[in-house]
Amino acid sequence: MEFMKVLFMASFCVIVCEGINTRELFSPKLSNKSVESAWECFKNLTGAQRGDTSKAMIILKHYFQKFGYLSISDGENVTEEFDEMTESAIKMYQQNFGLKVTGKLDEQTVTQLMTPRCGREDVMKFNGSKTGSYGMKHYTYFPGSPRWSVNRRHLTYAFDPDNEVPEITQTDMQTVFASAFHRWAAVIPVTFRETDDFPSADIKIGFFYGSHGDGYPFDGVLGILAHSFAPEDGRLHFDGAESWTVNLEYNSAMTAIDLESVATHEIGHILGLGHSSIKEAIMYPTLPARTRKINLQNDDVRGVQGLYGSNPK
Ligand SMILES: [Zn+2]
Ligand SMILES: [Zn+2]
Hints:
By secondary structure, this protein is an alpha/beta fold. The chain has two domains: 2-115, PGBD-like superfamily/PGBD (Muramoyl-pentapeptide Carboxypeptidase, domain 1); 125-308, Collagenase (Catalytic Domain) (3-Layer(aba) Sandwich). The protein is 28% helix and 13% strand. It is built from seven helices and twelve strands. The chain has helices at 2-17, 55-66, 84-96, 107-114, 170-185, 259-271, 298-308; strands at 117-118, 125-126, 131-132, 135-136, 140-141, 154-159, 191-194, 203-208, 224-228, 235-239, 243-245, 256-258. α5 (170-185) crosses α6.
């Protein structure tokens, strides 16, 4: 498995950062200092503004396309130029992440762009009015606001026996997910129960490397951490190449990612929530390495209760 990680990371770097970043890549367990995110090459763009050209700009444009900020049609020649469309994408990105809207690649923006994140897009259907009875809403839903139907509110989840990670014991895995599901179940009238019957489970949890058949390939260490699908799909995928941990105190890797934090976020998507622009919210798209963030915020709770109502208990 370790060998596969190194192999995948190496091939990814050749494809994405060729000619831009030639620093060595190693697994986090071999050397913390040498590990770089898939988006490390954005550093080269710090200070760039409209009219500048850079090879990293091509990667940035594809990044913006992936997360919903830019539309690139099939066969379109993506140039190295920092053009008007890119400037608009940056402004929208800055707005979504609560940054100063400058349209420039200032340091704060570049740092945010390089932060590990969820693979789901940010730009989804925003709720019509931004002001509700509780004040500003920042949560979003998927287009059409899909949710689990009324007769599917007692959901089962299972771990894919063919796509696990060796670093996390079965007991730890079960504890982490029971806890993450419980946090959502505490605020909405939906229950979650683990089952061994993977094929029939409503929610299917697995760890994958690179391309894994759903059109959303993972990218090695950091970069994209996980992704999941809108109701009633139930697929919840983690990037197997991450240095997953259930306790940051026992994992010294600079790239360690807290499994429960990411699981809690992805379950929000499984239930129908999109990304939030509130930095403290569980549904905010990014999570820096070595960070634990597991408690639902008011914005998360209001968002999910907008789909399912509140827990009558
Ligand atoms: Zn997400
Ligand atoms: Zn996937």
